[in-house]
Amino acid sequence: MNIVFMGTPSFALQSLDLLVKEKYNVLAVITQPDKPRGRGNKVIFSDIKKYALENNIEVLQPNTLRNNEEFVNKLKSMNPDLFVTAAYGKILTQEVLSIPKYGCINVHASILPKYRGAAPIHWAIIKGEKKTGVTTMMTDIGMDTGDILIIKEIEIDNDDTVSTLHDKLANLGRIVLKETLDKMKNKSLERIQQNNEEATYAPIIKKDLGAIKWDNSANDIYNLIRGTNPWPGAYTFYMGDRMRIWKSEIVKEACTTSKPGTILGVTKEGIYVATKDNIINIVEVQFDSCRKMCIDQYICGHEICEGEVFGE
Questions:
Q1: Can you identify the CATH homologous superfamily of domain 2-198?
Q2: 45 with 34: CB under 8 angstroms?
Q3: Which residue has the higher pLDDT, 208 or 38?
Q4: 36 and 42 in contact (C-beta within 8 Å)?
């Protein structure tokens, strides 16, 4: 089967590797244009592009798909049987979708129709979901609205962050894609229409999402910290300096009448902070001028004062 693969972030890498290892003929890899990154503002290739080049697969990086006659003609000239997408980052036009013989399969990191959109892993954790999964679907012109093919679910562990859950779902995506393609080959693949009334959305994550509101519940704050790790990072302010919080825990059966954000105690085990209901213990922090540190390391050379209120 002749396949054109479209994907950009590392989530897509397992799916692309599956196609290569299973000896599908990957005609080309379509990925987002290179962008400058890091302090040096250097252009660094994505893992997807690196993998494609290492495996002698042609790489195409169009700035736009709309009204791009040259790109569309290039795809048509390949005569693909199928497109496979995984977190490509652009909505395919009807003109593009009409090119492959068997349409386009998308590998999406949620249990559709929940969490359609760009950041399903982040939002599943932030919203406190207990399970998530990977869905393969037939792509249409909507945002993750096409017919469902196969869904596999996994539990979200209580200590999962975006990083750990991302890796689990990327591996699961590989498994689901293989099963989907196998069923397509033996003509046993079924399509299930999505229930749009049950749809929820996972919009792009913005930097200010990580700002902690201490008058939220301890559980909501805990989930925000996990659901923004490693990016953009949950944060608050202490004495005017931004403090990112990378790891925390909820103090079981502990409640307080103190103002939310009040520092109730500081020990080597953490910083105990009042919330709307229970107490959050901050375990790992990073100020803008420092590296990540556990609290026992940080308080060796810095002072955190009991009674101060975060954010003030």
A1: Formyl transferase, N-terminal domain (3.40.50.170)
A2: yes
A3: 208
A4: yes
- Are the C-beta atoms of 263 and 304 separated by less than 8 Å? yes
Distance in angstroms (rounded) separating the CA atoms of residues 138 and 184: 12
Residue 259: count other Cβ atoms within 10 Å of its Cβ: 11
Of 38-47, 236-245, 291-300, give the lowest mean pLDDT range. 38-47
Q: What is the pTM of this model?
A: 0.96
Quick one: fold of 210-301? Answer: Methionyl-tRNA Fmet Formyltransferase; Chain A, domain 2 (3.10.25)
Could you identify the residue written with the tokens 């892993």? 121
In DSSP notation, 123-153 reads HHHHTT-SEEEEEEEE--SSSS-SPEEEEEE
For CA atoms 33, 104, 101, 51, the dihedral sign is: positive
SS3 at position 274: strand
Helix (H) or strand (E) segment spanning residue 75: helix 69-78
Rounded CA-CA distance 78/128 in Å is: 44
